[in-house]
Amino acid sequence: MSWEQWVLVALAGAIVLAMLVGAVLLAVRLVRARRLLGALDTSGKVAFWGALAYTVFPVDVLPDPIYLDDIGVLAAALLYFGRLAQQRRAADRRLPGRPTTPTEPPRRPIP
């Protein structure tokens, strides 16, 4: 093998390693996000389970050896899920003495 081929092999290995590290980090965040699932509304649950189903099922936008679409869907769902959790925490940290709106019942704190 020539040095050009070795460079291409090394570059392909680095890309595969970066994708693997990204997938592992997303999987860890997904497991951590699962704990907050019970405290959120339906849209958060749909985003979580929809992203997980898209990742697991074999029907993909891109072929399976390329996991960029799976990683992108998971990352987008986790970002959305994180924003919902932040909004929920902010709503739970209301100032003392500030009444809740009449249409919104008081919320239980997130465990």
TrEMBL record:
Cite the DUF1232 domain residue spans from the record.
45-75
Q: So where does this one cross the membrane?
A: 6-28, 35-54, 66-85
Where does the UniProt annotation locate this protein?
Endomembrane system
Q: Where is the composition biased (Pro residues)?
A: 102-111
Give the matching Pfam families: DUF1232
Q: Which UniProt keywords apply?
A: Membrane, Transmembrane, Transmembrane helix
Mind telling me which InterPro entries this protein's record contains? DUF1232
Topology term for the membrane: Multi-pass membrane protein
- What cellular-component terms does GO give this entry? endomembrane system
Q: What is its main location?
A: membrane
Superkingdom assignment: Bacteria
Residues of the region (Disordered) are 88-111
Keyword check for Chaperone: no
**What is the protein's given name?**
Uncharacterized protein DUF1232
Q: Which organism is it from?
A: Micromonospora olivasterospora
